[in-house]
Amino acid sequence: MQTTEKTNKPIYYGWYVCAATMFVGFVVIGVRNSFGVFVVPMSEEFEWNRFTVSIAAGLGVLVNGLCQPFAGQIFDRTGGRKMILISLAVLGTGVILLSLTFHILFLVFMFGIVVSTAQSGPALSNTAALMSRWFKRRRGTAISVNSAALSLGGLIMVPFSMYLLQATNWHVAWIVLGVVVLATIPMAYLFLHERPEDKGLFPDGDSDPAAVGAVARRRGGPGPLEVTSWRHAFRSSPIWQLSGSYLVCGMTTSVLAVHFIPFAIEDRGVSGTTAATIFGYMMGLNIIGVLGAGILSDKIGGTKNWLALVYFVRGLAYILLVTIDSVVGMWIFATVAGFSWIATVPLTSSLTAEVYGLKAMGTISGISFMFHSIGGFLSILLAGLLFDLSGSYTLPFALVGALLFPAAISAFSIKERKYSARYQTSLPTVAAAGD
Amino acid sequence: MAALATFILAHSGDAADPELIHWIKERLDQIFGPGPWAVVAVMGLAIFAIPVFVVVVYLLQAKRRSDFEHIDQETQEYEKAP
Prior knowledge:
The complex is a heterodimer.
Chain A: H1 2-6, H2 13-46, H3 50-78, H4 80-97, H5 104-119, H6 124-134, H7 139-167, H8 170-182, H9 184-191, H10 214-218, H11 230-233, H12 237-266, H13 272-300, H14 303-323, H15 327-340, H16 344-356, H17 361-390, H18 394-402, H19 404-412, H20 416-419, H21 430-433
Chain B: H1 2-10, H2 18-32, H3 36-60, H4 62-80
């Protein structure tokens, strides 16, 4: 026994799974976001106008959002490893084939359908479900690491694609990006495994659930809403509360991603460089925010309270954005909003896993993410329309920002202690009395 | 509709706003100069350093893992013994 205590415990295998999904997500989101940089060279060569090319991008966004619940269902039925590996092979091949583009219909089919469908395989909804199997006590942290990687993917892979285009041409650049996607397969093959049981382990690397004492006992029992089919989940209120809030999350992040810089330039009179600097600062803070949200919810508990707080803080940020008419106001907004930007992702995913269990987690998460995409799509449309009518972004920002307060109430009113597996007691313990 | 499609095209990802990417490119140009190959090489290496680092850590931990599994097995056998 003394020898066991002296030997340092090796890194839990779940963290390798987390690193693999992180790298896969980093590359996949980077390739998706890189599409924009190919528009000009491809349009010039084939004499397409922007609207023609945008059909492929628009279809891609739609197909990717709609495919997520189906990808989730495949994840639940066949497992994440197989699905992610096949998706990566199709995605990498599809991206390489984009180098052979000769007609707009080829681009629409290859990017809008093949590549976008394949991207829904290693989507965050599925990797979050995979993380939920490997982690219980540190679920929020593991999902938040995955979410932060997506932000980094956009920030690193897109400039990489830009320089690659500058150094070569669009044919070669698509081939290189496809090869980068295919290069994720060995790592995914090596490290992605379905469950800790496959490696003779327990979630979080606990050698025996009883060994972690009261915490394990507190998390011992399944929640009363644990489901085997996603249909059953949508008969209860928490998933509607989570998805409704997530719809608002999609609205408030997408509207800013699209309209923040035009708003800063046209409504606030800020230069393009300063606006981009503020936006970059906000994107940097979101990495800290998302990691912090995951770690705090794991350490302190009360996931729905953190989720409500994130929506509330973002709501306050929106108030600052529309009321303070200065550059200082923009910086204050960026600071407050930055911390809350994608912090909802690990909180929503871990709460979904804790309430509904893991059997249908892929599908349920996929549907929640679809709500997020729908919210984003609607808000972009609404903001564009209201800008045309009012000549300012203040009204659309105020409207979507106001929705954050009902979203915070919706998250806060989830009966987490009643439904979450985290608060179920399988054994009558002293610790349970402290709840 | 055309405006919407252009928006989607220009902003297909939250973290990839074109103005932001342009700003990042300006900063990188300041560091590496205007030649694209240096940045491609540095960023390419940074991207591939991620899986290499993970695999190296995994291999470095191999001995510790096997030692721990061995001790864990011994402990279980010891506890099962009457």
